[in-house]
Amino acid sequence: MALKLLQRLPKQVGQIVIHRYACTNSGLLFRCQSDLHLCVACLCTLSPNCIQNHGCRKRQLDGTRRGLTTIVREPSFAGSSSVGLHKDSFSRFCLIQMHHATPAEEQTFYTRLNKCTSSRQVFRFLRSVEVMTDSMAAASLHRVAELEQGVNCLKDPSVLEEHTIRVLCKQLEEDSGRLTDGGLISALLACTRLYLDPWSTLMVRLVSESQERLDRGYLKVGHLCDLGQAMLTLEGPGSVMLEQVMSQIQKQEPAQWSLADLRAMYKLLQSGAGFDGKYCDLLNAMHTHAVTVTSHMNPATVSELLGVLTSLNQTQAMPLVISLCKRAVRHVPHFSDQELTLVLGALMHFGHSDHYFVDAMEKYVPTMAFISHPETVTKVMQFFGRRNILSPVVFDAVAESFVYRADEYTPSQVARQIMPFGKLGYLPPNAANVFRKVETILHTRFSHFQPRTLLNVLHSCILVERFPVNFVSKVFSSYFLQQLQEQGTGIDRYVLAQLTQLYMTMKLECPFYEGPQLLPQYRVKSFLMPGHSLETPVDVHLYNSVKTGLVDLLGARSYFGSKVLTPYCYTLDVEIKLDEEGFVLPASHNDEVFKRIALCIDGQKRYTSNKRQLLGKEATKQRHLRLLGYDIIQIPFYEFDKLRNKTSVVEYLHQKIFPHSYRLSW
Fold first, then answer.
1. Which residue, of 241, 415, 439, 615, has the fewest CB within 10 Å?
2. Would you place residue 489 in the very low, low, confident or very high pLDDT band (cuts 50, 70, 90)?
3. Which is one Gene Ontology cellular component term of this protein (predicted)?
4. Would you say residue 104 has pLDDT above 70?
């Protein structure tokens, strides 16, 4: 057959090119210098008569079977694989070994392919393509998978019944042995993304051929990663082929990998291959190499790597996180919404930020707050709130957009955008409009809010002196409290603390409130608790310095109490009691107490990280203590740290606590 086929081809085989001709049954034809036209199907079936003369002897197909024509590979046809598309009534793809797509042709193809916004457009585009390489064919399947990607399934499974895709898959099935390594493995990966039956003939052949090439041990890193992705999808982390892939990858040196290989390997590990901790040494070597190439990373790569580090919880990779953050500064205006969301999530996860990144965000957020995806705007607020960074520029821009866009936000997004205002104790210029909008949303969509989400919104409001009186009665109802208990594992101490502080706020600041009261069993006795707390523990070093100065000022340690728990749930850093004449009483003395002084020893953690403004919870604590009758004396760290000796400390404390009396010397 091969001999007869070669005899019928022109002698100058090297000059064969691909052209398209219009005829009664138009197809992909070879055009020789002699202008002799031979149908591919006739060549393959060795028909004595070409379709142009006496018709073709190719087999007749019924309406349910797809036509497919393949030129078998002979030694003289040793070249890269490409797929040609017939334009007759039975569209077919032909493997043409002599065709080499130029980089320009490939780039044009991929550009047009990526412009397709639906599967139908992809199929229409493919029907217009004369020749494509196997990599192009695989890319087409990937594009369909991207456009139809749903939650663990295709949005429209009927696309798999399209004539074009069925013919393409049939060609890949029958010519799996001809495909290049990249084309073969990319096609296999694309098929897994299309959720094709793992036991279909196509999948079995692609996997079998991939196994053969894997056994040879010559696959490149990028191809190994794609193969690992495919087998992870097909067989899970326990796949034998995946183990073989990882074994071959571990024998290579990550420092020699290209950036594309590095990305592919990170993606494979993120997909599930790296969660069992077996590849720590490989990961560390990859991190070391990645640090050296961050300057070459585009926005997509930066966000992708940060997302991988977050998924794998690579806390030991902080040098890489810092390097990626520095690179992200350049890309802030160029990140897509999804990419920026990933970057912000990763920086929150690792607890990192720098002022250059914050500056870049301050320039960018006002331009995107009204147009970006709601989740991206929400993530921006979460980032600034989590890092305790008070940026009026950012907060004001988001506050303005909130008034106009909040109706399209989910309850979770509403809560996560409002909570940072409360946490950092900041009211934007349009605060009245913002909280009026919050009230409107709660009125119209109250039942849509999860109990804890609603509680977070209301609690954030009281931290900035906005009192949600109309909704507190619903929160204190037995029905709502029962919902809180049923959500998750019950009501934890932090939730009870929020309820208690909400209750105290109604008592102290909204005396006109006459709705239901919070039952005693839902109240806590102290707001200070390990971990998440409504009070910030006192800075130990600062406290010890102040305590020493107080002993020198008052004459004895017995004249002040430390870390005193009040009946009102708040813990005082230092309490000093005075009688009616202004004399200091011993801390243990409870009779004849005329005035109580609460010293708030405010360390750096009680303030926003970039400004000298108390956090919302600390400002609320001091506000409530004043309403309860305490004299509040603030000892901020930025004032106390300037004091250089014992004398200056004592003078400072005397001026703070007893500004209108002379100091006695002991």
1. 439
2. low
3. mitochondrial matrix
4. yes
Convert the pLDDT of each residue in 420-437 to its tens digit: 999 999 999 999 999 999
Q: How far apart are CA 166 and CA 143, in angstroms?
A: 15
Q: Let me know if 650 is exposed, middle or buried by CB neighbors in 10 A (0-12, 13-18, 19+).
A: buried
* pLDDT over threshold 90, residue 661: no
Q: How far apart are CA 651 and CA 638, in angstroms?
A: 16
Task: Give the separation between CA 85 and CA 171, rounded to whole angstroms.
Answer: 11
Tokens of 28: 């992909």
Question: Do 501 and 527 contact (CB within 8 A), yes or no?
Answer: yes
The whole-angstrom separation of Cα 186 and Cα 133 is 12
The identity of residue 311, as a single letter, is S
Report the alpha-carbon distance of residue 652 to residue 665 in Å, rounded: 15
SS3 83: strand
Tokens 């300037």 sit at which residue? 642
For residue 48, give the nearest of 35, 59, 38 by alpha carbon: 38
The answer to whether the CB of 29 falls within 8 A of the CB of 19 is: yes
**Is 544 a residue whose pLDDT tops 80?**
yes
Which pLDDT band holds residue 130 (cuts at 50, 70, 90)? Answer: confident
Return the amino acid letter for 335: F
Alpha-carbon distance values, 54 to 37, 49, 90, 138 (Å): 13, 6, 19, 37
Alpha-carbon gap, residue 90 to 513, rounded angstroms: 78
Q: What is the pLDDT of residue 663?
A: 57
Of the given ranges (158-172, 439-453, 622-636), which has the lowest mean pLDDT? 158-172
Task: Give the pair of three-digit tokens for residue 634.
Answer: 């603030």
Is the Cβ–Cβ distance between 657 and 599 less than 8 Å?
yes
Nearest residue to 497 (alpha-carbon basis) of 528, 463, 537: 528
